[in-house]
Amino acid sequence: MACIDPAELVQSKIDKRLTQYRESPRLEGVMRAYLGQAAEAQNLACRMLDFFDVDTAVGDQLTILGKVVGWPRDHRAGQRRPVFGFACADECGPPTIPVAGFCEAEWDCGGPDYVPFRFIDDELYRGFLKARIITNRGDYSRHGLTLASRAVFGADAVIYREAPGRVAVATGRLLSGVEISIAHLYRQALPIAPGVRLDIWHGNGPAFGFGDGWGGFCDGSFPVQITLN
Questions:
Q1: 190 closest CA partner among 115, 102, 127, 118
Q2: Where does the source fall among the domains of life (predicted)?
């Protein structure tokens, strides 16, 4: 962001003083002193905005932005507990629920379905913030949903299916185990109008279809729907 040089800002205000005061060096000195302090403060505030750009902010800067847009790093029921099992190779298709092996999954079947989750990965968090910004604008259009979906999933995300009261987004790629386990959070972050249900589909690449974000005949894949409650 281009910030005005304090000296230029002060001079622009000095130039506006009344003619009868232009020959008073003492008054000009006082004006420059007070205007200089205000100009420095404005310049500092302007430069601070560069540190809170959602595209470049990291760490605590991103955390502060998250609080501003209403999407904190910590979510009390943010992650679905993984089911004990093992990831399957290509022959059985993409997973539809979070699965983990011996050291990660919990055996206690009586525990809560969802546990607290913290966005540690800045890039994962950044995508959610970008989607949330679009949602805060109230942009529930197809264009808004596409932009927000590509912010969290990548450039190949598309609106896969539409029906009255229901819309599905194809991610255009395989989601990680963590992303599958927090899939319900996409419903809260993406711009979905009240009364409309969002479904998430993922696969081994761009979904079969034609146009921007679709895979075409040779490279298109058939995604599967992630199981959400």
A1: 127
A2: Bacteria
